[in-house]
Amino acid sequence: MRRPIPMAICYDFDGTLAPNNMQEYGFVKKLGMTPQEFWGIANNLAKDQKGDEILTYMKVTIDESRKKNLPMTREDFKAYGRDITFFPGVELYFDRINQYARSKGINLQHFIISSGLKEMLEGTSIAHQFTEIFASSFLYNETGAAVWPAMVLNYTSKTQYMFRINKGCLDVTDTEGVNRHIAKECKPLPFENMIYIGDGITDIPCMSMLNKAGGHTLAVYKEGQKERAFGLNRDGRAHMVAPADYREGKKIDQFIKAVIDKIAAEGNLKYIISKK
Predict the structure, then answer these.
(1) Domain 5-19+86-274 falls under CATH 3.40.50.1000
(2) Interacting residues of 270 by C-beta distance below 8 A, sequence separation 6+
């Protein structure tokens, strides 16, 4: 019996599946701050100390929570994730697109690759749709409180997780496996069978790498903010641009189904050629 063709779609999160930064849906409000105040502190710290912006926002998260005596356990972060709302169609999109892929003989997996917080993402209503969520996360002390960054994903380190998916090495603690040489034809999920969907400059390295490897890239935008996404297309980073609307028949749906059709056709051709 013929095996299903493997395929993966990788998503950024903030601005890609959800309109705003995930911290802004509940956490920042609980701090009694505006998003502008929170990000202003974090970005100024990065600039003053010449630090990584992801590390500095994680430090500000800890510092401000301690000042406000606000609990910061893994479960608290998950609770904030439950407040996150999505672009139109997102919550119904996964089951529909999975069914379409199965009808074409494709085993489709979904992955998040985000600089946001894994703990918040695990609390969202769509968390169960992903094979793995790769995102920044905290270390926790004996009382369960967040004390230090455990994992940090920035615009360049995000590409590591594309290689992990390509090699089937999803355990983030496995540094040997992700660096092990594997012949292209033996890798469980070819780059050509991947789509990367993002919305901004932090997605450029993943898009550029996947384009060079024969994959497919899509830049999305929310209403009234299309220039950044079209810039990614003009610069050759994204194959296509679409409004962040995941409902059936919309441009994202059409693009993904077309890529599924392409991968299915190429897989069928390889299968026919390989038969003796």
Answers:
(1) yes
(2) none
